[in-house]
Amino acid sequence: MSESIPNRKIIHIDMDAFYASVEQMDNPSLRGKPVAVGGSENRGVVAAASYEARKFGVRSAISGVMAKKNCPEIIFVSPRFDRYKEISGKIHKIFREYTDLVEPLSLDEAYLDVTQNKKGNPSASLLAEEIRLRIFNEVGLTASAGISINKFVAKIASDYNKPNGQKTVNPEDVITFLEDLPIRKFYGVGKVTTEKMYQLGIFTGVELKSKSLEFLEKHFGKSGGFYYNVVRGIHNSEVKSDRITKSVAAEHTFDSNLSSEIFMMEQLENIANTLERRLKKHNISGKTVTLKIKYSDFTQQTRSKTLPYFIADKGLILETVKELLYQERMKDSVRLLGISLNNLNTEVKKAVVVQLKFSF
Question: Which residue positions hold the site described Substrate discrimination (predicted)?
């Protein structure tokens, strides 16, 4: 590895089919069966799918109708986010017994910097094994892990031996690992970017590495610099234990499409109540109110307004939302409404990371 690349010991833990696995754990009759959390055979969107369902092409974000078409035996269950948060809390409590540098990405995944750790164990790979075993024994769920010198490589590695496995990319193997990696597996390279890279003759990391910084910036703008660095093993983003909340939101998908703004306002009042509770729970307020509208044809629209002061009260939120709702006529009936608050009053807190030379 280059001397300029800081070596850290980073573990990325990713729970296996988390929402669906919690449902199967709590309800033994669902074990071994294709389960979709969220949605229904008539409408709605799948939030998560069990591995049994994934074999049939059922994935998060596809419609319930498509899930049923792909897998006629699919079992739909309603999401229980309070339960998922409860389980997530237990898992994160285990993480913090190993390091205070824990950066949650969501309820079911997190980065851990174990360069220095509370167990005094120099092996990040052995720590990952121990953490995964504890999650299984104490919570009842399986997790996968990726271990490497930075967050980017660790994130990619955690997908390699799923479910219930782990992969370590040692410092001396990082460059070869990235050069051989299909471009579609690079974290942060989505479907559209993948197609664009294919058109430019970039199919693996080695072809990406052959392109100059100027070439990549010309074709991918600011992201070009990111691609140029990560394929060389350079990703200096620290694990931030106090990850900043950038927005707080609440939304609801309706059983029947709404076509009247009056009915929409009734639903928005319920959504604002939920949003207010979340804001007050974390003592957060914000200036930018955004109304999210998803139409019956699945097209989506957002309308936003920034206020000169911070708000968290549902009355003030609703006042702004009403203005946004009547800002222009609806183009179709509505299947989902959501409200989010951005431009928050949260402060940046930087974690201190000590970087050392080591073996994995």
Answer: 19
